[in-house]
Structures are given as C-alpha cells and as structure tokens.
Amino acid sequence: MAPLSSTVVDLARVQFATTSIYHFLFVPLTLGLGPIVATFQTLWYRTRDERWLRLTKFFGTLFLINFAIGVATGLVQEFEFGMNWSVYSRFVGNVFGAPLAVEGLAAFALESTFLGLWIFGWNRLSPRLHLATLWVAVLGTWLSGYFILVANSWMQHPVGYKIVNGEAQLTSVWALLSNEFALRAYLHTMLAGLIFGSTVVLGVCCWHFLRGRDVELFRMGAKVALILAVPVTLLQLVVGNRFGEAVTSAQSMKIAASEAQWNTCQPCGFSLFQIGGFTASDPTPSFSITVPKLLSYMATGSFDGQVQGLNQLQKQEQRKYGRGNYMPNVRVIYWSMRVMAFAGVLMFLVAAAGAWLFWKRKLERAHWFQWTALGAIALPYIAATAGWVLTEMGRQPWIVQGLLKTSDANSPSVSTTWLGISLGVFISLYVILGIVDFVLMRRYARPGRPEQQEELPAPVVSY
Amino acid sequence: MDLQTIWFCLIAFLWSAYFVLEGFDFGVGMLLPFLPRDEQERSEMFETIGPVWDGNEVWLVIAGGATFAAFPAWYGAMFSGLYLALLLVLFFLIIRVVSFEWRDKSESPRWRAVWMWANAVGSFGAALIWGIGLSNLLYGLPLDSSGDFTGTFWDLFSGYTVLGGVTIVLLFAFHGSTYLTIRTAGDLCVRAVVAARRFSVLALLAVAGFLSWTVAVAVDHNDKSVFPPVLPAALGIGAVVLAVLFVARRRSGWAFAATAVATVAWVATMFTSLYPRVMVSSPNFGNSLTVDNASSAHYTLVLMTVIAAIFVPLVLLYQGWTYHVFRARVGGRDVQAPPLAPTAGS
User: First CA to last CA across chain B, in angstroms?
Assistant: First the structure.
C-alpha cells in the first residue's frame, strides 16, 4: 500500500502545485494592473485629457484578458481542496473554510459584479459612477487577496484554534484575521502585485518607445509606472526581509532549509551562492560566497542573532512529533529563495535606472534600457513562482504546520487513475489557455496597433 | 431551528441563487448556435448576459466556500466523491469563462465561432453535469463509514440521475429563452419567443417527470415520507405550467419569473428530500452524511451566520442594482448607437 498511496499524494501535490502556480501567474497582474488602470481613468476624469482615456482603454484591455484566466483558474483552486484533499478539508474546514467563504461573499462578489458594470457601463453610468465601479472592483481584488492569504497563513502558522475529535475548530476569528504571518504575507503579496503591474506597464511602454510609436502617450504611462515601481520594488526588499523574521519564528525549519544551514550558528553568514552542501551526507559546500552576519540579521533582526540548524531542528521535531523526516527539500528551498531575492533586487535596479533616465529625459532614447525593461517583464513572474515554491515546499512534510502531514491529507477515494486524468486535463487545458492568452496579450500590447476598441463595429460585447 | 438546519437552508438558498441566475445565462449560452441568424444577433445575445454572468457565477464560489466552512465533511465527501463529474464541470466552466472575454478580441469568423461553441458546449455540459451530480446526493452513492466515496465514476449514472441532468438542461434552456424574451428586441426577440414555446412543453414534461420521481426516491432511498418533498415538487410543476401559459400569452416578464420560481423549486425539492441528510449513502444507508455529523462546530456556524446575514443581502442589493442598470433591451433600435465610444465627457 505504501508506494501506491505515496504516488497518489505525489500526484495530488503536483496537481496542486501546477494549478496554483499557474493561477498565480494571472492573479498578481490583476492585483497590480487594476489600480494602475483605475489611476489612468481617474486622471482622465480629473483632467479630461483624452490621452489618459486612451491609456485606460489600452491597459484596461490587457487587464481584462488577464483577468479572465485568473477567474477561470481560481474556480479550480476552490474545488481542488475537496476533490484531492478531503481529509485535509474535514480537518481544517471549521477554520480554513471561513475565510474562503468570506472571500467569495465579501470580495469576489464585489470584483466580478463591479467589473461587469465597468466593462459595459461606459455609456450607461455617469463618468463619476463609472470610475467608482472600477475602484470598487479593485477593492474587491485586494480584499480577495487578504482572505486567501489569511487561509494560507493559517496553514503556515495556525492560530486561534483547538483540536477536538481530531479536527481543528476555530476559537477566535480575531486571532485568525490578525495572524501576524497573514498580515506580513499580505503586504508582501500586494507589493508583488504592484510590482507586476508597474513592471508590465513599464515594459509595454518601452516597447512602444523602441518602435517609436505613440511616444508621447506612452511617456505618460511610463511616468505613472515608474512613480509606482521605484517605491514598491524598494519597499518589497525591506518587507520581504521582515517577512523572513515572521517565518523564522513560525517555521524555523523553512528558514534553515532556505539557507542550507545544517548546524546552528551565531552569528550566521548569508550564502549568496554555493555548490554542494544540500544534503545531510554532504552538508559543506565545495564552493560558496558568503556575506558575514547577514543571515542573522535577515532571520532575527539582529546581526548577532542565532539561527537554528536543520540537524538540531530535526532532532527537536522528532522529540515533539515522533520519528520521521521533518526537513523539506533543501536544494529546492535554497535556490527558490535566491531566485526570488535576486529577481527582487534586479527589479529594483531596473525601476531605479528607468526613473533616472526619465528624470534626465533620456528614457525615450535609451534603447538598451527599453530592451531591458521589456525583458524585465519576466522577472516578477519568476520571483512570484519561486516565492510560492519556497512558501509551500518549505512547509513540507506538513500541510498544516505541526498539525497535519501532507501524506495524511489526500482524498482516500481518489485513485491514481482519476488523478492522472485530471492532471492531464488541467495541464492540456492550461497550456492552450496560456498560449491563447500570450498571443492575445502580445497582440493588444503591440506597438502600432490602431486604437482597437474604438474601431470595432458597434455591438461589441466586452469593451 | 438549530444552527445546522439554518445552514442547510442557507446552502440551499445559495445553490438556488446560483442556478436561478447562472441558469438563464447557461440557457442563453446553449441557444447561441441556434437562435441568432448572424454575427450581429449573436453579439446581441452575448451582450444580454455579458455584464452579469460573472456576478452570477460568484454564487457557485460562495456556495462552495460556505459548504466548506459550515459542512466540511459534506464538502470533502461531495467534491472527492463526484471527482470526475466536477472535473468536467470545471472544464466546461473554464472554456465558458474565457469565451466571454476572448470572443470579441478578434474579428476572424473562425475565432468567433470557436468561442461561441466553447460557450455553448460549456453551458450545456455544466448544466447537464450539475443536474446529474446533485441528483446523486439524494439517489445515493456508496460511502464508507468515514464518508469517503467507494464507487466508480459509472455509479453516478442511473435512469434517475440522467433524467435529472436532462431536466436541468431543458429547464435552463427554457429559462434562458424567457430571459431573452425580456432582454432582446426585434426579430431576435420573436425567435426567442418561438424557442421559449418549444422548450416550454419539453421542460414541463421533464420537470413533472423528474420532480415526481424525486419524491419517490426520497421515500425509497432516504426514508422520507411523501409530505414535505411533495410541496416544493408541486410548486415546481405548477410554476412550469404557469410559465407555459405565460409564454403562450406572450407575458414575457411573468414567464421569466415563473421559470425562475421553477428553478428555485427544483433546488428546494432536492434539499427537502435530502434533509436531514446531506449525502445519502447507498447501499449502506447508515453511512449517510447528515447535517449533524457533517457540520462545523458551534463557533464557526455562529460566525458564518453573522457574516452571511451581513453580506448576502448586500450582494443581492448591488447585484440587483446591476440588473437595473442593464435592464434595457439589447439590439433593435439600439443597434445604430455605437456603445463603445465614450460619450461621457466628450
């Protein structure tokens, strides 16, 4: 039985990883592009400058193409808990179900209803009311993110519950909603959304500079993107770092694994790069570049702080939870942490360079930067994916930290055949959707495309 | 009434809201390949549901989330037990969701045809599978003592459950046609009336047959007496009869109201027949999930009750406003006015 059930768990994990990483390629752009488009429309409303309206419609179209897949794949996420993880669902439903239900009722309902009003309301609502519908939809997306992260953070750092008859029961909704882990994760994720939005807008504007199309118009867009990008990329470096402290107290093992820190150290250097040193039998890297004391600072907030090692933590966990391996995959966690952090620094550098060029009025001519900014669109996608791999794989072997193991949480009624079929369906569907989405996004972001919306024949459905 | 029962009723309400609202946009979707004569009319049909379908689908997300929170064991058993059926629902809903946003992003006829069919197939398929899936909760599925499904995919199909699926498809096609009769204009509206007439008879036959059978299944499979389930069943059949009469007399608004009531009555019949169980186990009836053994603890139920009491009316209110904003008929004399150029401020 053991090998069979581990295949089931592995397949269910692969499926959850695939569908949620995919979902999160679209969600943060929705979170970040929404407020930017709403800002463009607000500027149009205030100034009556038709160029802001053109930017609103241009980036609004990209926003909607992207939004569609976010909605479609979000449905899968909600169903998947019950479909693949019924034991988990029964165990956590009392606690975890609540924020999920509130997300639908208080947040998703807002965003989908008001987005419908915005898309079709151009001529039916007063300009002021029409603008308000977009801001309300944006508020919906941001609330939605909060409730989802409250649910996820409870898996990382369970609070406000008691265990009764083998299931977790909620004892304090306030503790759940104000979980420090959740608040930090929320800030981190919303900043990521804004980075997505500003990086994509900046990249698309630079694409237009490269082709010399509508330079005046996209200069205005680039300005808004840069005003946003510089502070959020910088702030994210600080917030991401502080988020690490919350992880240290809630999930010491995750931090130790993300640094491939096998033995407790004080003070601890931060390894920038290393070869080897990722397994218990080979704990010392054959080559590494280390910044002294930095890890102590990042993990604890003090340059002399102590960081516990994997081996010591493993012993502690065994004393607490019994025999077993409590370490996540160190190599994956180490590198996902670095990919995320390095991409974060790069995004800040791109934003800072762009702002400097804009200041010097060289942005429209600096081809090297324009290519860089266009390529930099990939960075937030890489960073967000790596970040979720770190968060979720770093929690293993637990599905709910310290309470329930992933290997005990799947649906007993679901066979490998069913999992194989569903995985095949999701992957093929998602690949097709991804290709169509990419083609559409490219087509509508492309320089030199005539004002598409206005020129389509009259009864066009969405705008 | 205890909290478990209140939540059972609330879940029934959420499913009713979902099916009444998404029911007509499923119906409009199914008619897309058949009713319009040209691309213009097809776009008009899309436009009748374009602003509202996403808000309608939200009720599914809410119903799913609420079931997770209030009845975790029901959520786990239902979603894992109906595994492949729900996979199909997801497939159909996904191709439908993207069809709304993507169809008008190119003018190529082939592109438009692909997404029109995606919408039609998605609408038809999702309605069919929901009908089959929910009928199974009452008809009974093999569950073990911890509520886990022990059968195969084919256990979901029986004469009763398949009729359940077909009934929902016909009822929604009817519901969608009556919706079109109040939201379209001109020639398209005339054809929507004809479609409504055709579907009215079929829907009446199917609903009458299925709801009567449901009462019998409640008695045979779920240890119910005839009395409570027969009430919503009679209401449902009565509502479809009225809808048939209204359609024949061209009372469009009333006909739409009647198909909406029939949809609510269908959900009410299923849930009344289920109570106090939420999933019937067959053959081992003792393993059935009930409102008591599947529910969350007191604290969560109280919390969720407060949240629902605040937000459900609020969502209904602003969605109602959306329907008010988009109440005008699409097409007809509006055809000439380009809806896209922003008149605002210009």
Answer: 58
